[in-house]
User: Which sequence fits this backbone?
């Protein structure tokens, strides 16, 4: 039995606030990709799906003259750092196991190289999964952040993914 479900996370107003800013459809797609990759590689599907869901919750919208500015974003962005911190705070508040909360936060921290001085860090398999899951859903010019999904459909797909994780945990009690 997991301490916190994806639905618990999804229902929280902090999640709604930040994921609707960075793109709920993208968050869901990355969560599904991360689940599938973790399943293939016998990694923890619960940690992977949660990190995938929350990986972009640190985004800030960089506007200049009332318009989104991608150049400004690329220059100033630290969303991986903010996201790791926000996700950790939210998960602990919801009652997540602290070891899992740390693993999720670190996977979010390292899901991109954008804030690092070099791109030669060595990631754990789980951190690699979240990075790859994000890249699978990326569109040119950051367009993946703008794909829309309505609330009910998003909620249904979260419930479906929760069931898939529960099934996976029953089959592999060690994960
Ligand atoms: Fe992303």
Assistant:
């Amino acid at each position: 039995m997991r301490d916190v479900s994806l639905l618990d996370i999804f229902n929280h107003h902090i999640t709604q606030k930040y994921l609707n800013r960075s793109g709920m459809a993208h968050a869901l797609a990355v969560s599904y990709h991360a689940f599938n990759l973790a399943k293939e590689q016998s990694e923890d599907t619960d940690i992977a799906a949660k990190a995938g869901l929350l990986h972009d919750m640190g985004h800030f919208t960089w506007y200049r003259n009332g318009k989104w500015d991608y150049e400004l974003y690329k220059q100033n962005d630290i969303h991986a750092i903010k996201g790791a911190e926000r996700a950790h705070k939210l998960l602990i508040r919801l009652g997540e196991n602290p070891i899992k909360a740390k693993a999720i936060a670190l996977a979010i921290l390292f899901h991109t190289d954008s804030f690092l001085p070099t791109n030669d860090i060595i990631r754990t398999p789980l951190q690699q999964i979240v990075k790859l899951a994000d890249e699978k859903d990326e569109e040119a010019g950051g367009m993946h952040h703008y794909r829309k999904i309505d609330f009910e459909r998003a909620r249904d797909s979260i419930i479906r993914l929760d069931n898939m994780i529960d099934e996976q945990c029953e089959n592999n009690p060690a994960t």
